[in-house]
Write a structure and sequence with these properties.
The protein is an alpha/beta fold. It contains 28 helices and 19 strands. Helix 4 crosses helix 5, helix 10 runs parallel beside helix 16 and helix 26 runs parallel beside helix 28. The longest helix has 39 residues. The two termini are 40 Å apart. 42% of the residues are buried.
Length: 802
């Protein structure tokens, strides 16, 4: 062993709160995250993606792009990983690839470590829920990274001995804690008190547990971590690297300098932080200092001393774990003068409901499952991916044979267990008030648990839950208390089969759908349905069967919807009792519609479907956007026609104003902008682009000082990326090279920000690194002739070439 072995490890905890609707498992459009779909989408683009394509720069010129995940220790929340797998599969695969590559380089020790499925404060939860949450996190890790985890991140680093005992029993080798969480250290067979100032975080330790077992502990450098998360250390990669390197001492023993922060620090909390991280890692590499991960260092060198931990402590609350159950003062700085007294009744209500959920599980479980507790643990195989075959396999293994009628009840119990844990997510207590998205999300999970308990146990629990929750008062009087917030925000989120059917009926007005469709967490099998049209008005009536992919519950419904212009949409659905009642209803709607009696149709919808009668305001934002996009399509066509006519009518006077060198009135500018953008889009959408005409129009817009909209920018970006894809397949295609060069010239002429071409830069660097450099080194004659053009292209993208 080399005497001066120095190692640096940087840990990022990547996590997002659960944001999906508990009934349909989808994240709805969130207008607070504009221009993105939701906060997961926004933070992915600001942090998770940039860290997979971090720029190494020399000034403004990009030297290379690197995957930071290959050099940092990281944990990803399982719910976040599921989101990335579905929405950003390429990024998801890059994260897995980073773990595999690091594992290959570091003797089988990958960069990824595990964390629980849900981000609950372990010491505040029951033993059963801790075991389930930890097990689910481990199984998610195994399914994602194809190996068993060595290390484990505890949410908020909240720890007690019971949690560590559970982790030990599951075979976890070590956890990550803050130095203030060490209580005592064993020196010469005797435990002595220790604190964060006297603990040497360059070593790793073993925590002695009450059972006599041990689990490893890596303590991060709290001071350095604070400078990264809350200070200015990420403003300079050089300074970041220097601070890390200067943290070693002169000891000849192996040393680990490590920091731990939220992964979102790099890019989201600290814009461009991922670039400074990449630069720091590159500098550390150049000094010959080992960049490692926790698993490798712990496995290679083992623990230096035994310690005991300070129980009921965390990394984000100086008062222990009070931030998640009392008015401890944490988050009071967000809104001075506000209190967090609401935390205690929210905690009490959620804990009470958690206990009621467990009673329901244990009472009903033996009636529907051959091993209810084992079934709950293995339910992770289902919600990791709600495929029909996964549900079928689970039912085969854990349902009581010959009791097929109880399968739905078994699956409902599983959802009680899952949502009961999700409603305990730490985010609900973290911030300044109960009227925030995080507590509201917790209350939605609670509503799902309440609904399922009441369906299965035939007992009312909502009233008692709300009786506790009503004492959780918002600091803002307009929002009232927890009970009122629950009624305003949680109950309307409930998606019954009837509400799903009514939403689906509205979509049927605007699209043709096949007989079987997936719609959120349902499979919908359409029966007979009729579509009516009269001018702008439309109506649909029909029958369908909704099958929940979650609980396998099958619900036959009848539905109807009507649209009579702009935002005037109404729909309803109810459980189908018999065919006769539907036939009579359909006949009435058809007669009223054909006679133009639209108000009568609305009246019959209200009477037939109440209380499951809805208008556009009652839909999820995703559905609202889908419908309004269709509604506005015709309006946009009509407006475009009007703009065209106005432009042609007023063109002579506009030209005359220009000839006098006078400024256009604002309304003329808008007409010009519309016409110029329309002309540019028409040219770009042609198979062969007329670049001469395009340049003339762009020059005209610049002369007139007319701005061009993002829609044009987006189309140019798409064209550039498509040409780059072609060049990756055929790098010597002269026509594609010419088109790319001209598109980039146009882009520069329109002052399109380079941030718009972020993905194009990634593609070009891939082309350069993996294809062009090889061709250049092979002294290919044609390639030599193309180098000048590729240099021009790279200069537009601000990328070093070759």
């Amino acid at each position: 062993m080399v005497s001066d072995e120095k190692y640096i490890a940087i840990f990022g905890h990547f996590y997002q709160p659960p944001r999906f609707n508990p009934w349909i498992l989808e994240i709805d459009l969130d207008i607070s995250s504009r221009p993105y779909h939701d906060w997961n989408d926004r933070i992915t683009k600001e942090s998770y993606l940039p860290n997979a394509y971090a720029r190494l720069k020399d000034g403004e010129i990009i030297e290379d792009v690197v995957n930071n995940y290959k050099k940092v220790t990281f944990s990803f929340g399982p719910i976040l990983l599921s989101y990335l797998k579905e929405k950003y599969s390429k990024l998801y695969n890059l994260i897995i690839e980073a773990d595999k590559e690091s594992s290959s380089k570091l003797s089988g020790h990958g960069n990824a470590i595990a964390q629980p499925y849900a981000h609950i404060i372990m010491p505040l939860s029951s033993k059963e829920d801790r075991e389930r949450d930890i097990y689910w996190g481990i199984k998610f890790f195994e399914k994602t990274f194809d190996r068993y985890p060595e290390g484990f991140w505890l949410p908020e680093a909240a720890v007690d001995n019971l949690t560590l005992e559970i982790l030990y029993d599951y075979g976890i080798k070590f956890v990550i804690l803050s130095p203030h969480q060490a209580k005592s250290i064993k020196i010469n067979d005797k435990f002595e008190e220790i604190n964060e100032k006297t603990l040497d975080t360059k070593k790793v330790y073993r925590a002695l547990l009450p059972s006599g077992n041990y689990i490893g502990v890596v303590f991060y450098n709290k001071w350095l971590s604070g400078l990264v998360a809350f200070g200015d250390l990420l403003k300079s990669g050089e300074l970041f690297a220097r601070k890390l390197i200067e943290s070693f001492d002169n000891s000849e023993k192996p040393q680990l300098v490590s920091i731990a922060t939220d992964g979102e620090t790099y890019g989201h909390h600290k814009p461009k932080g991922e670039e400074e991280l990449a630069k720091a890692l590159s500098i550390i590499d150049s000094y010959g200092i080992n960049i490692t991960n926790y698993s490798y260092f712990y496995s290679t060198y083992g623990a230096s001393n035994d310690i005991t931990i300070n129980e009921n402590t965390s990394w984000s609350c100086p008062h222990g774990i009070e931030r998640w159950r009392s008015n401890c003062g944490c988050a009071s700085d967000i809104r001075p003068g506000w209190t967090q007294e609401w935390r205690t009744p929210l905690r009490k209500s959620i804990d009470w409901l958690r206990d009621m959920a467990e009673i329901t599980i244990q009472n009903i479980g033996p009636k529907v499952s051959n091993d209810i507790n084992k079934a709950i643990l293995n339910y992770v195989d289902v919600f990791y991916d709600y495929k029909a075959e996964n549900v079928s396999s689970f039912v085969e293994n854990f349902a009581i044979k010959g009791e097929e009628n109880k399968i739905v009840d078994l699956l409902k119990l599983m959802e009680i267990a899952k949502n009961s844990i999700l409603m305990q997510s730490s985010d609900a207590w973290f911030f300044e008030d109960i009227y925030r998205p995080e507590p509201i999300q917790s209350l939605r999970f609670a509503k799902r648990v309440i609904q399922l308990i009441e369906e299965l146990a035939n007992t009312r629990v909502e009233e008692q839950f709300l009786n506790i929750l009503k004492d959780a008062k918002s600091n803002n009087p307009r929002y009232g208390n927890g009970k009122e917030i629950y009624e305003k925000e949680a109950i309307p989120a409930l998606m019954t089969a009837e509400k799903v059917g009514a939403s689906y009926a509205m979509r049927l007005l605007f699209e043709t759908i096949s007989k079987e469709n997936d719609y959120y967490s349902y499979k919908i099998i359409l029966g007979p349905y009729k579509k009516l049209e009269l001018g702008r008005a439309k109506a649909v009536t029909g029958i369908a069967t909704l099958i929940s992919k979650i609980t396998w519950r099958s619900t036959p419904i009848m539905f109807a919807s009507i649209y009579y212009g702009w935002y005037n949409l109404h729909a309803g659905a109810k459980i189908l009792v018999d065919q006769k009642s539907y036939i009579e209803f359909e006949s009435s709607v058809t007669e009223f519609f054909n006679n133009g009696l639209l108000p009568d149709i609305i009246d019959i919808l209200q009477k037939t479907f109440y209380p499951n009668y809805y208008n556009l305001n009652n839909l999820l934002k995703n559905d609202q956007k889908f419908i309004m996009d269709h509604v506005l399509d015709s309006a946009i066509i009509e407006l475009a026609r009007q703009y065209e006519m106005l432009y042609n009518n007023y063109l002579p006077v506009m030209e005359y104003v220009r000839s006098l060198n006078l400024n256009y009135p604002k309304v003329f500018e808008l007409l010009l902008q519309f016409e110029l953008e329309k002309s540019i889009l028409e040219i770009l959408e042609q198979e062969i682009i007329d670049f001469n005409r395009l340049e003339q129009i762009i020059q005209w817009s610049k002369n007139l000082e007319v701005s061009i909209d993002d829609l044009v920018h987006s189309l140019i970006r798409e064209k550039i990326e498509k040409v780059l894809d072609n060049l990756i397949l055929n790098p010597q295609d002269i026509n594609s090279i010419n088109i790319l060069q001209k598109l980039l010239e146009i882009s520069k002429g329109l002052d399109i920000p380079l941030e718009y071409l972020w993905n194009a830069q990634n593609k070009f660097i891939y082309l350069r690194n993996n294809i062009l450099r090889h061709l250049i080194s092979s002294e290919d004659y044609l390639m030599k002739t193309l180098i000048p053009q590729y240099k021009i292209i790279s200069s537009y993208l601000k990328i070093r070439f070759p």
